[in-house]
TrEMBL record:
Transmembrane stretches, start-end: 29-53, 60-79
Source organism of the structure: Cecembia rubra
Name of the protein in its database record: Endonuclease/exonuclease/phosphatase family metal-dependent hydrolase
GO molecular function: endonuclease activity; exonuclease activity; metal ion binding
UniProt xrefs under Pfam families: Exo_endo_phos (PF03372)
Length: 358
């Protein structure tokens, strides 16, 4: 019986480890199943210890499972690293939740300090998801407060509303010149991907700001466990639909990034865990800032499901990351801001350009 359970656990672990490469478009529930990977790794660890203490050769089976799934440990937890104080290009990503306004311009909660914090934040590039703008009211004219008054150029792509009245969308602010900008796609609701080409001295970097399909679960239902239990069927349907939609959006984004003439940095709210098809597809060709320079678990969600890391910074390998931080002290939104600092060897070239020169 022990041998049977151990082997079965090993086979289930292998199946789940490789399921992250299966698109939810073909198997809609695969994204939900992969959420159990950390639990499986823990169980394998317990089996290994128990079998080792019992001096059973069978202990090699859960040990092998842990070795094969080691990459999942790295994307879950990073041991603290000594931060490099070297200066470079600093990038901030923050889902600001409409700056605590709702779509009618009314306060949802008293979070007036968010604008002040962003004004004082020294990042060279600031990317915002769920950006709110109202040029008719000085305290809500966020492009002016965060852009014009601070000397930042900005690209604001409206998803809903009009430029001369209340609107919301996504924005990229830059201390350096923006020479090109655009929208990869939007859902005409609250999600999408935008980009800006930013001239940094003699180099140009393309910044992608992403807000992939939300799970469309009312935040009130996530504030307590009772709300989650009462709505679990509806929640599962929304989770499944979100997984499928994000897989489709990922294809559009990846094609756009492949055609980029510049080195890419991709930031945003991906609404997906690190054990997802979206995360692992991006991870195949790009580095993840948390994995390379983060510490701890790096959770970015500021609700009852606090164990979620759904905000990320990915970057092309010619860039060298010096620092990564999750700003847990900033709790004005349902997400925490994340930031990274990059350096590079000049001139900055895409990997294929480097290979062609070789």
């Amino acid at each position: 019986m022990i041998r049977f359970i151990t082997v079965l656990l090993f086979l289930v672990s292998l199946a789940l480890f490789y399921s992250v490469y299966i698109s939810p478009e073909f198997f809609p529930y695969v994204g939900l199943i992969t959420l159990t990977i950390p639990l499986l790794l823990l169980i394998n660890g317990l089996f290994f210890i128990l079998l080792l203490l019992a001096r059973r050769k069978l202990a090699i089976v859960p040990l092998l499972a842990i070795i094969i799934g080691w990459k999942f440990i790295g994307i879950t937890y990073q041991f603290p690293k000594k931060a490099d104080d070297q200066e470079g290009l600093s990038v901030l990503s923050y889902n600001v939740a409409l700056f605590a306004y709702d779509k009618n311009g009314d306060w949802r909660e008293n979070n007036k300090n968010v604008i002040k914090w962003l004004q004082e934040n020294p990042s060279d590039i600031k990317c915002f998801q769920e950006f709110y703008q109202d040029p008719t009211t000085p305290s809500r004219n966020t492009t002016k407060l965060l852009g014009n008054e601070l000397g930042y150029e900005y690209s604001y792509q409206i998803i809903e509303g009009k430029p001369r009245s209340r609107s919301y969308g996504m924005a990229i602010f830059s201390r350096y010149p923006i020479i090109n900008e655009g929208k990869v796609f939007d859902t005409q609701r609250n999600n999408g991907v935008i980009f800006a080409d930013i001239k940094v001295d003699k180099d140009t970097i393309r910044i992608y700001n992403a807000h992939l399909e939300s799970m469309s679960i009312e935040s009130e239902n996530l504030n307590n466990l009772d709300g989650i239990k009462e709505n679990y069927r509806q929640t599962l349907r929304k989770l499944k639909r979100g997984q499928v939609t994000r897989a489709s959006q990922l294809g559009i984004l990846e094609e756009h990034m492949r055609n980029s003439p510049y080195v890419n940095i991709l930031v945003g709210d991906f609404n997906d865990m690190p054990y997802s098809y979206t995360y692992f597809n991006l991870r195949k060709n790009m580095k993840n800032a948390f994995e390379e320079a983060g510490s701890g678990f790096g959770f970015t969600y500021n609700k009852v499901l606090f164990f979620l890391r759904i905000d990320n910074i990915f970057y092309d390998e010619p860039l060298i990351i010096q620092q990564f931080k999750t700003h847990k002290e900033v709790d004005y939104s349902d997400h925490y801001p994340i930031s990274a600092v990059f350096t590079w060897v000049k001139p900055l070239m895409k990997p294929q350009e480097i290979n062609s020169e070789d």
